[in-house]
Design goal:
With about 475 residues, the protein is of the alpha+beta class. Helices cover about 30% and strands about 25% of the residues. Helix 5 (about 135-145) crosses helix 6, helix 9 (about 265-275) crosses helix 10 and helix 9 runs antiparallel to helix 15 (about 425-435). The protein is globular. The structure holds adenosine monophosphate (AMP). Adenosine monophosphate binds next to helix 13.
Length: about 475
Amino acid sequence: MSGPKHSCGIVGIAADSDVADAIYTALMVIQHRGQESAGISVFRDGTITTVKGDGLVDRAITKDGMSKLAGKIGIGHVRYATTGSKGNENAQPIAVKAYKATISVAHNGDITNYPQLKEKYMAEGRTFLTDSDSELILTLIAKHRVGCDDEVAAIRAAMEELDGAYSLVILINDRLFAIRDPYGFRPLCLGKVSGGYMAVSESTAIDAFRGELVRDVLPGEICEIFKDRVESHPMERSHPHARCMFEWVYFARPDSVIDGIEVYQVRKNIGRILAREHPADVDLVMPIPDSGRAHAIGFALEAGIPYEEGFMKNRFVGRTFILPEQKLREAAVSNKMIPIKGTVAGKRIVIVDDSIVRGTTLKILVSMLRDAGATEVHVRIGSPPIIAPCYYGVDMKSRDQFVATKLSVEGIRELIGADSLGYISIDGLVEAIGMPAEELCLACTNGLYPTKIENEAQRPSSD
Ligand code: AMP
Protein backbone atom coordinates (compact mmCIF):
# COMPACT_ATOMS: atom_id res chain seq x y z
CA MET A 1 0.00 0.00 0.00
CA SER A 2 1.24 3.50 -0.70
CA GLY A 3 2.38 5.54 2.30
CA PRO A 4 0.09 8.55 2.30
CA LYS A 5 -3.64 8.03 2.15
CA HIS A 6 -5.80 9.89 -0.28
CA SER A 7 -9.26 10.65 0.91
CA CYS A 8 -9.02 13.98 -0.82
CA GLY A 9 -10.99 16.44 -2.89
CA ILE A 10 -10.47 17.15 -6.60
CA VAL A 11 -11.78 19.60 -9.18
CA GLY A 12 -11.21 20.32 -12.89
CA ILE A 13 -12.66 23.20 -14.89
CA ALA A 14 -12.65 24.16 -18.59
CA ALA A 15 -14.11 27.60 -19.35
CA ASP A 16 -14.07 30.52 -21.74
CA SER A 17 -12.04 32.66 -19.28
CA ASP A 18 -9.33 32.11 -16.63
CA VAL A 19 -10.24 29.27 -14.27
CA ALA A 20 -7.86 29.59 -11.29
CA ASP A 21 -10.25 31.74 -9.22
CA ALA A 22 -13.09 29.27 -9.77
CA ILE A 23 -10.86 26.30 -8.91
CA TYR A 24 -9.78 28.11 -5.73
CA THR A 25 -13.43 28.70 -4.79
CA ALA A 26 -14.32 25.06 -5.45
CA LEU A 27 -11.39 23.90 -3.32
CA MET A 28 -12.62 26.07 -0.44
CA VAL A 29 -16.04 24.42 -0.74
CA ILE A 30 -14.54 20.92 -0.58
CA GLN A 31 -11.97 21.89 2.08
CA HIS A 32 -13.53 19.35 4.50
CA ARG A 33 -12.12 16.60 2.23
CA GLY A 34 -8.55 17.60 3.00
CA GLN A 35 -6.69 20.13 5.11
CA GLU A 36 -3.09 19.05 4.78
CA SER A 37 -2.21 20.67 1.46
CA ALA A 38 -3.80 22.22 -1.60
CA GLY A 39 -2.79 23.04 -5.14
CA ILE A 40 -3.85 24.17 -8.59
CA SER A 41 -2.47 23.42 -12.09
CA VAL A 42 -3.50 25.40 -15.17
CA PHE A 43 -2.54 25.10 -18.81
CA ARG A 44 -1.64 28.03 -21.08
CA ASP A 45 0.58 28.54 -24.13
CA GLY A 46 2.00 25.03 -24.13
CA THR A 47 2.84 25.00 -20.41
CA ILE A 48 1.21 23.65 -17.25
CA THR A 49 1.86 25.87 -14.22
CA THR A 50 1.33 24.43 -10.75
CA VAL A 51 1.10 26.24 -7.41
CA LYS A 52 0.75 24.17 -4.25
CA GLY A 53 1.61 24.24 -0.58
CA ASP A 54 0.86 22.95 2.90
CA GLY A 55 -2.20 23.77 4.95
CA LEU A 56 -5.66 25.03 4.17
CA VAL A 57 -6.42 26.40 0.71
CA ASP A 58 -5.96 30.06 1.72
CA ARG A 59 -2.54 29.32 3.17
CA ALA A 60 -1.34 26.85 0.57
CA ILE A 61 -2.21 29.01 -2.43
CA THR A 62 -1.13 32.59 -1.84
CA LYS A 63 -2.15 35.72 -3.73
CA ASP A 64 1.27 35.71 -5.33
CA GLY A 65 0.76 32.07 -6.38
CA MET A 66 -2.65 32.86 -7.85
CA SER A 67 -1.14 35.64 -9.98
CA LYS A 68 0.92 32.97 -11.80
CA LEU A 69 -2.09 30.88 -12.71
CA ALA A 70 -3.45 32.25 -15.98
CA GLY A 71 -5.24 29.70 -18.14
CA LYS A 72 -8.69 28.60 -19.22
CA ILE A 73 -8.34 24.97 -18.24
CA GLY A 74 -7.07 23.55 -14.98
CA ILE A 75 -7.34 21.20 -12.03
CA GLY A 76 -7.10 21.46 -8.24
CA HIS A 77 -6.67 19.27 -5.18
CA VAL A 78 -7.08 19.32 -1.41
CA ARG A 79 -5.22 16.66 0.54
CA TYR A 80 -6.53 14.85 3.56
CA ALA A 81 -4.49 15.14 6.73
CA THR A 82 -3.27 11.79 7.98
CA THR A 83 -0.68 11.03 10.62
CA GLY A 84 2.86 11.01 9.32
CA SER A 85 2.14 11.97 5.74
CA LYS A 86 3.03 15.63 5.94
CA GLY A 87 5.32 17.26 3.43
CA ASN A 88 5.08 19.15 0.22
CA GLU A 89 6.29 16.16 -1.76
CA ASN A 90 2.81 14.70 -1.28
CA ALA A 91 0.95 17.87 -2.24
CA GLN A 92 -1.00 17.67 -5.49
CA PRO A 93 -1.59 18.20 -8.38
CA ILE A 94 1.55 16.40 -9.51
CA ALA A 95 2.80 17.54 -12.92
CA VAL A 96 5.46 15.82 -15.06
CA LYS A 97 6.92 16.25 -18.51
CA ALA A 98 6.12 13.30 -20.73
CA TYR A 99 6.42 12.40 -24.41
CA LYS A 100 5.11 15.43 -26.36
CA ALA A 101 3.07 16.59 -23.35
CA THR A 102 2.98 17.92 -19.86
CA ILE A 103 0.62 15.93 -17.67
CA SER A 104 -0.81 16.94 -14.32
CA VAL A 105 -2.97 14.76 -12.09
CA ALA A 106 -5.10 15.20 -8.97
CA HIS A 107 -6.19 11.98 -7.32
CA ASN A 108 -8.70 10.91 -4.67
CA GLY A 109 -8.41 7.27 -3.57
CA ASP A 110 -5.83 4.56 -3.06
CA ILE A 111 -4.28 2.22 -5.61
CA THR A 112 -4.27 -1.20 -3.96
CA ASN A 113 -1.75 -2.85 -6.31
CA TYR A 114 0.66 0.09 -6.03
CA PRO A 115 3.57 -1.91 -4.50
CA GLN A 116 3.37 -4.62 -7.17
CA LEU A 117 3.11 -2.17 -10.08
CA LYS A 118 5.88 0.04 -8.73
CA GLU A 119 8.13 -2.97 -8.27
CA LYS A 120 7.34 -4.17 -11.81
CA TYR A 121 8.17 -0.82 -13.38
CA MET A 122 11.29 -0.30 -11.29
CA ALA A 123 12.46 -3.71 -12.49
CA GLU A 124 12.03 -2.35 -16.03
CA GLY A 125 14.30 0.57 -15.17
CA ARG A 126 11.72 3.28 -14.46
CA THR A 127 12.37 5.59 -11.54
CA PHE A 128 10.04 7.14 -8.99
CA LEU A 129 10.55 10.28 -6.97
CA THR A 130 7.87 9.75 -4.31
CA ASP A 131 5.95 7.06 -2.45
CA SER A 132 2.74 8.40 -3.91
CA ASP A 133 0.45 6.18 -5.92
CA SER A 134 -0.59 9.26 -7.88
CA GLU A 135 2.91 9.39 -9.38
CA LEU A 136 2.40 5.80 -10.53
CA ILE A 137 -0.83 6.82 -12.28
CA LEU A 138 1.13 9.51 -14.14
CA THR A 139 3.86 7.03 -15.05
CA LEU A 140 1.34 4.58 -16.46
CA ILE A 141 -0.51 7.17 -18.53
CA ALA A 142 2.78 8.59 -19.82
CA LYS A 143 3.95 5.10 -20.80
CA HIS A 144 0.75 4.12 -22.60
CA ARG A 145 0.72 7.39 -24.58
CA VAL A 146 3.94 6.47 -26.35
CA GLY A 147 3.05 5.01 -29.74
CA CYS A 148 -0.65 5.72 -29.22
CA ASP A 149 -2.18 8.89 -30.63
CA ASP A 150 -5.42 8.47 -28.71
CA GLU A 151 -5.30 9.96 -25.18
CA VAL A 152 -8.48 8.16 -24.14
CA ALA A 153 -7.03 4.79 -25.20
CA ALA A 154 -3.84 5.54 -23.24
CA ILE A 155 -5.82 6.38 -20.10
CA ARG A 156 -7.95 3.27 -20.57
CA ALA A 157 -4.81 1.13 -20.86
CA ALA A 158 -3.49 2.63 -17.60
CA MET A 159 -6.84 1.91 -15.94
CA GLU A 160 -6.60 -1.74 -16.99
CA GLU A 161 -3.46 -2.02 -14.86
CA LEU A 162 -4.68 -0.12 -11.80
CA ASP A 163 -6.63 -1.72 -8.95
CA GLY A 164 -8.42 0.03 -6.14
CA ALA A 165 -9.94 3.45 -5.69
CA TYR A 166 -9.29 6.41 -7.96
CA SER A 167 -11.30 9.42 -8.89
CA LEU A 168 -9.03 11.56 -11.04
CA VAL A 169 -8.84 14.84 -12.88
CA ILE A 170 -6.03 14.95 -15.40
CA LEU A 171 -4.62 17.65 -17.64
CA ILE A 172 -2.78 16.37 -20.69
CA ASN A 173 -1.58 19.61 -22.25
CA ASP A 174 -4.78 21.52 -23.00
CA ARG A 175 -7.11 18.55 -22.54
CA LEU A 176 -9.00 17.88 -19.31
CA PHE A 177 -10.19 14.41 -18.31
CA ALA A 178 -12.32 13.30 -15.35
CA ILE A 179 -12.17 9.61 -14.48
CA ARG A 180 -13.74 7.32 -11.92
CA ASP A 181 -12.48 3.81 -11.20
CA PRO A 182 -14.72 0.94 -12.35
CA TYR A 183 -16.02 0.32 -8.80
CA GLY A 184 -16.93 3.98 -8.26
CA PHE A 185 -15.45 3.97 -4.74
CA ARG A 186 -15.06 7.74 -4.44
CA PRO A 187 -17.49 10.33 -5.80
CA LEU A 188 -16.98 12.57 -8.83
CA CYS A 189 -19.66 14.60 -10.58
CA LEU A 190 -20.06 16.89 -13.57
CA GLY A 191 -21.45 20.39 -13.51
CA LYS A 192 -22.35 23.12 -15.98
CA VAL A 193 -21.36 26.54 -14.74
CA SER A 194 -21.42 29.98 -16.31
CA GLY A 195 -18.94 29.90 -19.21
CA GLY A 196 -17.81 26.33 -18.72
CA TYR A 197 -17.99 22.80 -17.38
CA MET A 198 -16.46 21.26 -14.29
CA ALA A 199 -15.82 17.92 -12.61
CA VAL A 200 -15.63 17.94 -8.83
CA SER A 201 -15.69 15.50 -5.90
CA GLU A 202 -18.90 16.90 -4.45
CA SER A 203 -21.91 18.54 -6.05
CA THR A 204 -22.07 21.26 -3.42
CA ALA A 205 -19.17 22.95 -5.21
CA ILE A 206 -21.33 23.22 -8.35
CA ASP A 207 -24.10 24.78 -6.25
CA ALA A 208 -21.58 27.32 -4.96
CA PHE A 209 -21.42 28.68 -8.55
CA ARG A 210 -25.19 28.38 -8.91
CA GLY A 211 -24.38 25.89 -11.62
CA GLU A 212 -26.26 22.82 -12.68
CA LEU A 213 -25.34 19.30 -11.56
CA VAL A 214 -25.28 17.47 -14.89
CA ARG A 215 -24.67 13.97 -13.52
CA ASP A 216 -22.11 11.80 -11.77
CA VAL A 217 -19.16 10.43 -13.68
CA LEU A 218 -20.08 6.76 -14.09
CA PRO A 219 -17.89 4.10 -12.55
CA GLY A 220 -15.23 3.24 -15.15
CA GLU A 221 -16.06 6.24 -17.33
CA ILE A 222 -13.53 8.62 -18.86
CA CYS A 223 -15.06 12.07 -19.47
CA GLU A 224 -13.34 14.72 -21.52
CA ILE A 225 -14.39 18.17 -20.37
CA PHE A 226 -14.58 21.08 -22.78
CA LYS A 227 -15.73 24.61 -22.08
CA ASP A 228 -19.03 23.91 -23.86
CA ARG A 229 -19.64 20.16 -23.39
CA VAL A 230 -18.61 16.87 -21.87
CA GLU A 231 -17.65 13.92 -24.04
CA SER A 232 -18.20 10.50 -22.53
CA HIS A 233 -16.12 7.37 -23.01
CA PRO A 234 -17.94 4.82 -20.87
CA MET A 235 -16.52 1.51 -19.83
CA GLU A 236 -17.53 -1.10 -22.33
CA ARG A 237 -17.83 -4.21 -20.16
CA SER A 238 -20.04 -4.53 -17.09
CA HIS A 239 -18.23 -4.36 -13.78
CA PRO A 240 -19.25 -4.63 -10.11
CA HIS A 241 -19.67 -1.37 -8.19
CA ALA A 242 -18.56 -0.50 -4.66
CA ARG A 243 -19.43 3.04 -3.65
CA CYS A 244 -17.99 3.93 -0.24
CA MET A 245 -20.81 4.03 2.33
CA PHE A 246 -18.69 6.29 4.55
CA GLU A 247 -19.06 9.16 2.06
CA TRP A 248 -22.76 9.35 2.96
CA VAL A 249 -22.26 8.53 6.64
CA TYR A 250 -19.43 10.93 7.44
CA PHE A 251 -17.07 12.17 4.79
CA ALA A 252 -19.10 14.21 2.32
CA ARG A 253 -20.90 17.44 3.08
CA PRO A 254 -24.63 17.00 3.86
CA ASP A 255 -25.58 19.34 1.00
CA SER A 256 -23.89 17.13 -1.60
CA VAL A 257 -25.68 14.63 -3.82
CA ILE A 258 -23.66 11.50 -4.60
CA ASP A 259 -24.82 9.17 -7.36
CA GLY A 260 -28.26 10.77 -7.21
CA ILE A 261 -28.61 10.38 -3.44
CA GLU A 262 -28.46 13.41 -1.13
CA VAL A 263 -26.12 13.02 1.84
CA TYR A 264 -28.35 14.96 4.28
CA GLN A 265 -31.32 12.75 3.48
CA VAL A 266 -29.29 9.57 4.01
CA ARG A 267 -28.12 10.82 7.41
CA LYS A 268 -31.67 11.65 8.43
CA ASN A 269 -32.79 8.20 7.27
CA ILE A 270 -30.01 6.67 9.36
CA GLY A 271 -31.31 8.56 12.41
CA ARG A 272 -34.86 7.39 11.77
CA ILE A 273 -33.78 3.77 11.37
CA LEU A 274 -31.60 4.01 14.50
CA ALA A 275 -34.62 5.26 16.45
CA ARG A 276 -36.55 2.18 15.29
CA GLU A 277 -33.70 -0.29 15.83
CA HIS A 278 -32.57 1.16 19.18
CA PRO A 279 -35.31 3.28 20.78
CA ALA A 280 -34.50 5.25 23.94
CA ASP A 281 -36.80 6.61 26.61
CA VAL A 282 -35.21 10.04 27.02
CA ASP A 283 -35.99 13.77 27.29
CA LEU A 284 -33.63 15.05 24.58
CA VAL A 285 -31.83 14.02 21.39
CA MET A 286 -28.46 15.74 20.86
CA PRO A 287 -25.94 15.52 18.02
CA ILE A 288 -22.19 15.35 18.29
CA PRO A 289 -21.49 18.35 16.04
CA ASP A 290 -20.98 18.62 13.20
CA SER A 291 -21.04 15.15 11.74
CA GLY A 292 -23.84 13.73 13.93
CA ARG A 293 -26.27 16.57 13.31
CA ALA A 294 -28.47 15.20 10.52
CA HIS A 295 -28.42 11.72 12.08
CA ALA A 296 -29.73 13.22 15.35
CA ILE A 297 -32.46 15.20 13.56
CA GLY A 298 -33.71 11.98 11.96
CA PHE A 299 -33.66 10.20 15.32
CA ALA A 300 -35.60 13.03 17.01
CA LEU A 301 -38.20 13.18 14.23
CA GLU A 302 -38.79 9.44 14.25
CA ALA A 303 -38.89 9.14 18.05
CA GLY A 304 -40.91 12.32 18.57
CA ILE A 305 -38.35 13.51 21.13
CA PRO A 306 -37.14 17.16 21.26
CA TYR A 307 -33.85 17.92 19.48
CA GLU A 308 -31.36 20.21 21.19
CA GLU A 309 -27.88 21.46 20.40
CA GLY A 310 -26.29 20.62 23.74
CA PHE A 311 -22.64 20.69 22.70
CA MET A 312 -20.86 23.76 21.43
CA LYS A 313 -17.95 23.00 19.17
CA ASN A 314 -14.89 25.18 18.98
CA ARG A 315 -14.48 25.39 15.23
CA PHE A 316 -10.92 26.67 15.53
CA VAL A 317 -9.62 23.40 16.98
CA GLY A 318 -8.43 21.21 14.12
CA ARG A 319 -9.14 17.52 13.55
CA THR A 320 -8.65 15.52 16.73
CA PHE A 321 -8.91 12.18 14.94
CA ILE A 322 -5.50 12.45 13.30
CA LEU A 323 -3.43 13.45 16.32
CA PRO A 324 -0.64 10.92 16.80
CA GLU A 325 -1.08 10.07 20.51
CA GLN A 326 -4.08 9.01 22.55
CA LYS A 327 -3.36 11.59 25.27
CA LEU A 328 -3.25 14.42 22.72
CA ARG A 329 -6.48 13.19 21.12
CA GLU A 330 -8.25 13.07 24.48
CA ALA A 331 -7.08 16.55 25.48
CA ALA A 332 -8.11 17.93 22.10
CA VAL A 333 -11.62 16.41 22.28
CA SER A 334 -12.13 17.92 25.76
CA ASN A 335 -11.16 21.38 24.49
CA LYS A 336 -13.19 21.08 21.33
CA MET A 337 -16.65 20.25 22.64
CA ILE A 338 -18.28 21.86 25.68
CA PRO A 339 -21.76 20.92 26.94
CA ILE A 340 -24.36 23.63 27.56
CA LYS A 341 -25.14 23.01 31.23
CA GLY A 342 -28.61 24.57 31.27
CA THR A 343 -29.68 22.26 28.44
CA VAL A 344 -28.32 18.99 29.77
CA ALA A 345 -28.59 19.25 33.59
CA GLY A 346 -31.21 16.91 35.04
CA LYS A 347 -32.02 15.41 31.61
CA ARG A 348 -32.04 11.92 30.16
CA ILE A 349 -30.21 12.32 26.86
CA VAL A 350 -29.48 10.34 23.72
CA ILE A 351 -26.45 11.54 21.78
CA VAL A 352 -25.97 10.58 18.15
CA ASP A 353 -22.68 10.41 16.24
CA ASP A 354 -21.75 9.02 12.84
CA SER A 355 -19.13 6.46 13.92
CA ILE A 356 -16.94 5.04 16.64
CA VAL A 357 -13.38 4.25 15.61
CA ARG A 358 -11.18 4.15 18.72
CA GLY A 359 -13.91 5.31 21.10
CA THR A 360 -11.93 8.39 22.18
CA THR A 361 -14.55 11.00 21.34
CA LEU A 362 -17.49 9.35 23.05
CA LYS A 363 -15.65 8.26 26.16
CA ILE A 364 -14.86 11.88 26.90
CA LEU A 365 -18.15 13.40 25.81
CA VAL A 366 -20.28 10.98 27.83
CA SER A 367 -18.33 11.82 30.99
CA MET A 368 -18.56 15.55 30.25
CA LEU A 369 -22.34 15.24 29.98
CA ARG A 370 -22.51 13.46 33.33
CA ASP A 371 -20.34 16.19 34.91
CA ALA A 372 -22.76 18.74 33.47
CA GLY A 373 -25.63 17.02 35.30
CA ALA A 374 -27.19 14.68 32.70
CA THR A 375 -29.01 11.89 34.56
CA GLU A 376 -28.78 9.31 31.74
CA VAL A 377 -26.61 9.28 28.62
CA HIS A 378 -27.52 6.91 25.78
CA VAL A 379 -25.40 6.67 22.64
CA ARG A 380 -26.56 5.88 19.09
CA ILE A 381 -24.17 5.44 16.18
CA GLY A 382 -24.94 6.02 12.49
CA SER A 383 -22.62 3.32 11.14
CA PRO A 384 -22.25 -0.34 12.09
CA PRO A 385 -19.17 -1.20 14.20
CA ILE A 386 -15.98 -0.43 12.24
CA ILE A 387 -14.03 -3.68 12.33
CA ALA A 388 -11.85 -3.79 9.20
CA PRO A 389 -9.33 -1.42 7.61
CA CYS A 390 -10.07 0.76 4.59
CA TYR A 391 -7.74 0.21 1.62
CA TYR A 392 -9.66 2.60 -0.59
CA GLY A 393 -8.84 6.02 0.80
CA VAL A 394 -10.39 6.58 4.23
CA ASP A 395 -7.92 6.92 7.08
CA MET A 396 -8.94 3.83 9.05
CA LYS A 397 -5.92 1.69 8.56
CA SER A 398 -5.27 -0.95 11.15
CA ARG A 399 -7.47 -3.41 13.00
CA ASP A 400 -5.85 -2.73 16.38
CA GLN A 401 -7.00 0.90 16.06
CA PHE A 402 -10.67 -0.20 16.17
CA VAL A 403 -12.29 -0.60 19.57
CA ALA A 404 -14.92 -2.90 18.01
CA THR A 405 -12.29 -5.54 17.14
CA LYS A 406 -11.39 -5.81 20.82
CA LEU A 407 -14.69 -5.37 22.64
CA SER A 408 -18.32 -6.42 22.25
CA VAL A 409 -21.01 -3.72 21.99
CA GLU A 410 -21.59 -4.20 25.73
CA GLY A 411 -17.84 -3.85 26.36
CA ILE A 412 -17.74 -0.62 24.34
CA ARG A 413 -20.79 0.70 26.22
CA GLU A 414 -18.93 0.09 29.45
CA LEU A 415 -15.73 1.69 28.12
CA ILE A 416 -17.48 4.89 27.05
CA GLY A 417 -19.60 4.91 30.22
CA ALA A 418 -22.99 5.12 28.47
CA ASP A 419 -26.30 3.86 29.87
CA SER A 420 -26.99 2.16 26.54
CA LEU A 421 -25.27 1.91 23.16
CA GLY A 422 -26.84 1.08 19.79
CA TYR A 423 -25.25 0.93 16.34
CA ILE A 424 -27.28 0.95 13.15
CA SER A 425 -27.34 -2.53 11.54
CA ILE A 426 -25.68 -3.12 8.16
CA ASP A 427 -29.13 -3.76 6.65
CA GLY A 428 -30.41 -0.55 8.22
CA LEU A 429 -27.52 1.41 6.74
CA VAL A 430 -28.10 -0.06 3.28
CA GLU A 431 -31.80 0.84 3.54
CA ALA A 432 -30.91 4.39 4.62
CA ILE A 433 -28.67 4.89 1.57
CA GLY A 434 -31.28 3.36 -0.70
CA MET A 435 -28.88 1.54 -3.01
CA PRO A 436 -28.52 -2.28 -3.25
CA ALA A 437 -25.82 -3.64 -0.91
CA GLU A 438 -23.96 -5.13 -3.93
CA GLU A 439 -23.44 -1.58 -5.25
CA LEU A 440 -21.79 -0.40 -2.03
CA CYS A 441 -18.44 -0.92 -0.33
CA LEU A 442 -19.25 -2.03 3.24
CA ALA A 443 -15.84 -3.64 3.83
CA CYS A 444 -14.99 -1.65 6.98
CA THR A 445 -18.13 -3.04 8.63
CA ASN A 446 -18.21 -6.63 7.32
CA GLY A 447 -14.59 -7.36 6.33
CA LEU A 448 -15.62 -8.36 2.78
CA TYR A 449 -13.60 -6.45 0.21
CA PRO A 450 -14.77 -5.73 -3.33
CA THR A 451 -11.23 -6.14 -4.75
CA LYS A 452 -8.52 -8.70 -4.10
CA ILE A 453 -6.51 -7.65 -1.04
CA GLU A 454 -3.82 -9.93 0.32
CA ASN A 455 -4.90 -11.72 3.53
CA GLU A 456 -8.42 -10.30 3.37
CA ALA A 457 -11.71 -11.93 2.39
CA GLN A 458 -13.38 -10.92 -0.87
CA ARG A 459 -17.09 -10.24 -1.18
CA PRO A 460 -18.92 -12.82 -3.32
CA SER A 461 -20.41 -10.42 -5.87
CA SER A 462 -17.05 -9.09 -7.13
CA ASP A 463 -14.62 -10.06 -9.88
P1 AMP B 1 -13.01 7.94 17.69
O1 AMP B 1 -13.00 9.11 18.61
O2 AMP B 1 -11.63 7.39 17.43
O3 AMP B 1 -14.00 6.88 18.06
O4 AMP B 1 -13.44 8.48 16.25
C1 AMP B 1 -14.78 8.74 15.94
C2 AMP B 1 -14.97 10.18 15.61
O5 AMP B 1 -14.06 10.59 14.60
C3 AMP B 1 -16.37 10.43 15.07
O6 AMP B 1 -16.88 11.57 15.72
C4 AMP B 1 -16.21 10.66 13.59
O7 AMP B 1 -16.99 11.77 13.18
C5 AMP B 1 -14.74 10.95 13.39
N1 AMP B 1 -14.15 10.12 12.32
C6 AMP B 1 -14.46 8.86 11.99
N2 AMP B 1 -13.68 8.43 10.98
C7 AMP B 1 -12.86 9.43 10.66
C8 AMP B 1 -11.81 9.58 9.70
N3 AMP B 1 -11.48 8.59 8.87
N4 AMP B 1 -11.16 10.77 9.67
C9 AMP B 1 -11.49 11.75 10.53
N5 AMP B 1 -12.47 11.66 11.45
C10 AMP B 1 -13.15 10.52 11.53
